[in-house]
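Render this sequence as a predicted structure.
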Amino acid sequence: MKRKQYSVEQIVAALKQAELGMPVADLIRQLGISEQTYYRWKRLYAGLESNQVRELKQLQDENARLKKLVAELSLDKAILQDIAIKNVWSAPALQGERCRSDACQFA
């Protein structure tokens, strides 16, 4: 069965019709959607205007992009920390040189 794609404006208009008194059963039959889809739309978009829904979608997209960026940076940080730890343990001669300086004598 072919799936219909409704724009945000169409969804908001359909919810407005239901708010104005159109029976839900008639509305979902007219749109060709399930009752579950109608109530999902109602949960997501009830009480919003078209421009507010568009802004909400843009914010959700930006939030997803930022979450992906944070995940990538966290992974980069973990990799760099692993490399730094391995370098510290693999270079004991450098640690000995640091302790021979005047600053280590006072510590």
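Summary. Residues 50-90 form the longest helix (41 residues). The two ends are 76 Å apart (CA to CA).
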